[in-house]
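Box S2. Input/output pair 1.
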Amino acid sequence: MSQEIIKLMLQGIEETLFMVSVSTIIAAIIGIPLGITLVITGKGHILENRVMNQILGTIVNIIRSVPFIILMVAIIPLTRLIAGTSIGTTAACVPLTIVAIPFLSRLVETSIRDVDFGLVEAAESMGASPFQIIHKVLIPEALPTIINNITVLIVNLIGASAMAGAIGGGGLGDIAIRYGYQRFRADVMLATIIILIVGVNLIQAIGDFAARKKNKK
């Protein structure tokens, strides 16, 4: 493998890390509170609001039902508006983030629902406010699972970022398509696959370790 290709692979890794990092951070900032909101506004919970719950749940379901490759194409005007372009790594962050937010919110929702409601009732009986219940009970109890959720999200985003390369999103996917497939470079394709496999396994191991550290059980 030539120096040019090695340099290109390193650039692809950097671009993939950029896309995944930006999308994960924004998705966590929005998706985690959204997932919590989907639970606490549900029937019988601390801030029951069926109208809000139904609206948020419907929006999340609509976005999640659209395949990523179709979503990328469908929101090109929005991508141009936000990123100033529809191609490249910065542009790819827009659809990646949009698809990541509802995905993470549903995972977090499941994690919060799994928290023993008896703990919530006990906190309420001691006069805890809804914010205190969220901050002191729900999030700490669900934190190990939420960390696992974020790990799952990152792994999925790595795959999605590779898919984004098919329409000019940059990163390792773009290299695999332009050099590995279109130029029949089996070595480039193999190197891309190995890098993605190693990356996914490394992230999974880090996520599992972090979750075990936070698990109080």
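Box S3. Input/output pair 2.
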Amino acid sequence: MSPYQHLTISEREKILVGIAEEKSIREMAEELGRAPSTVSREIQRNTVDSTYSANQAQQNYTCKRKACHREPLLSYLPIKQKVQHLLLHHQWSPEQISKRLKLEGAPIQISYITIYRGIYAGQLEDRKLINGQRGIARKLRHRGKTRHTKGYQETRGKIKISHSIHDRPKEADERHCIGHWEADTVLGKTGLPCLITLTDRYSRYLLSEQIPRKNASFVTPKLIAMFQQLPKHKVKTVTPDRGKEFAKHADVSAMLDGLPFYFADPHAPWQRGTNENTNGLLREYFPKNEDIANYSDQEIRQSIDELNKRPRKCLGWKTPYEVFFDIVLHLT
């Protein structure tokens, strides 16, 4: 890094005084602790009609200094529009945008740090696309989440489980292959329709369907139907939580050639982190306390497809869809 420092307004005023006192270039340079060539260039550049102005010299320096910087990447309309489109219409994170563009070798390249800076600097705001005090920053995933207080006791009814998660095969724990699923439900308004979700641990591929209520009588046939639509080699185990909606898991196993269920420990959502994280992503499309019955089956399928075609860091910026079906897509 160069140790050179630009002349300050104070130094320019001393040069002006030196010129008035008819001092030589070397005398002025010695007083300032600068090279004679620096003082000489300063006088030549900023002397107009045989008059040197310290104030005008400082203004000229400020203008030139601003002009010497590269324009921010987000000031270029094609880059700005591309980032806005992926961020607002597809709910991609800045890091997903940056890494996927790089993976595909797109002509537009931008770092996720630059995108974050642009968000908080207001460079991506467009009132035609989004409203609100914090604007586009509200579209970022990181929001405060409520947690159970210390000593919280589970009040839901207990169900009889077939296997503990600690007995689950090693290949499922270590995500060696496709076919080991995690199951849960995503609620809308209490007592009204909800979503049942299945997430593959290896590919993060998501299946989701609407059911009338969070009840075992509705969950059981829906689980059977969702698994029957998949090839048998892609259905090996299921890991749900201990909610009463999975109380009839034995009926599902009986209909699916003994498909084993491995239940997570009570109060241990991290043991089903893949599904919990995916449910959090679903909340971008289906907010809490909003009636899911307001969404058509087509809208739900479209939202699921968006998630399955969103690049993931844990997959090397491939999408769950690409990994699950072993194909390559062009998304940008």
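Caption for Box S3: Residues 54-67 form the longest helix (14 residues). The radius of gyration is 31 Å.
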